[in-house]
Amino acid sequence: MASSWLRLGEENFGSRFSAGGEICILLLENGFHFGGALWKWQSVEMAIVCGRINLWVSAAELAEVFDLFCEPKWSPRYNLGPMQSVLTIRTNPQGLRQAEPMQWGLVPSWSKSASQGPPLNNARGETVATKPTFSESFRRRRCLIPANGFYEWKRLDNKSKQPWNLFRADGKPLAMAGIWDRWQAPDGNWLESCAVITTTANAFMAEIHDRMPVILNADSWSDWLASDETNVESLLKLVRPCPDEWLRGTPVSAMVNQIRHDSAECIQPVKETRTLF
After folding, report:
1. For a 10 Å CB count at each end of the chain, is N or C smaller?
2. Domain assignment present for 53
3. Which residue range(s) make up the domain with 167?
4. Residue 272 belongs to a domain
5. pTM of this prediction?
């Protein structure tokens, strides 16, 4: 059965489900899974926002670009989605940057269960400092989430969408602003998880989608990662759309719609689908 991940905002299901964030659900041919139940398709407006990324650059280049303490253990991935492991960059107690995998889908430390509701893969920049699910992580547990690109789906008409791969114009890896948390399971094991912070789209992205991840420039990485930087107003100044000229994009195959496809073919440019009307 074909499946893919999409985000539903709290305007669809209410803050009691999404805790003020943007949430991902598993879409199936005859409906979608949410809250342990299968929901049938109805007149629900859906939007995708930063629910897939690719990271295929070498570990050596990642270490060089992000000034890492050591090379990360990472294999190329071309279609990463929520609940999978993504690479994150934090500073260790010695103040050095290191890269480690985390679950993409934030689980707050106070959650009763790691699987309570759909995964919180995104946090809206407009409310990340005030929503209880995200506010403490925003103040004290920030990270970078590197990616060569992220996928968004451009609406062509009422029935079809075209996936696009968005990437830096200079070819360097993106540094998406993230937050993380640590949750302890009843058996004593720890789970570290993260979310990408999103914001309104810049003019370039607005042609494809109305939102985008917060992308940070290298000169702001140290401030973002500093564990002693808890001034919310200063941090929020970094939560904004990146300049238009930073990004480029190409339409890609619809194979990225299905998470099982994870090869270099996912990022190969294709001609954009054209509609008759």
Report:
1. C
2. yes
3. 3-267
4. no
5. 0.83
Catalytic residues, by residue number, are 50, 152
Number of domains observed in the structure of the chain: 1
Nearest alpha-carbon partner for 177 in 215, 141, 210:
215
What would the pLDDT profile of 211-249 be if each residue is shown by its tens digit? 999 999 999 999 999 988 889 999 999 999 999 999 999
19-57 pLDDT tens trace: 333 344 444 333 344 444 443 323 223 344 689 999 999
